[in-house]
Each structure stands twice: as structure tokens, then as C-alpha cells.
Amino acid sequence: MANKIFRILRAGVDQLRHGRTPTTMLAVGDTAPDFELPAHDGSTVSLSGLAGKHVVLWFYPVADTPG
Q: What is the pTM of this model?
């Protein structure tokens, strides 16, 4: 599932780079798809495992650069 999310994000970024409106973005109010990603400590975190908790997803450029 994580690969699907990354493909959607990559497609959106590519569309923005070419001056187009992304067609694969989630709309406000959409339910986020479940995914799993590695945590800083090597464990795996899934969105479904955080059900009932507040979750903030923060995306930033590679190496935490300004853009």
C-alpha cells in the first residue's frame, strides 16, 4: 500500500512541476488510505494502527532542504 501512496504523491508532484493541477490528490474530507512506513526506531507504523488518535502527516523535501 505504501508504494501506491508514493506513486500517487509522485504523480501529483510531477503534475505540479509541469504546471498542471494534480488529478490524484485527496480532497479535503477524503479518508486517507491505510499505509505502513518505517519509523525512526526501525519499527513499522501503520495509519490503521493509529486509529482513534490524532495524526499529522508532514512531508518535506529531501534532506530537509528549503525546496
A: 0.48
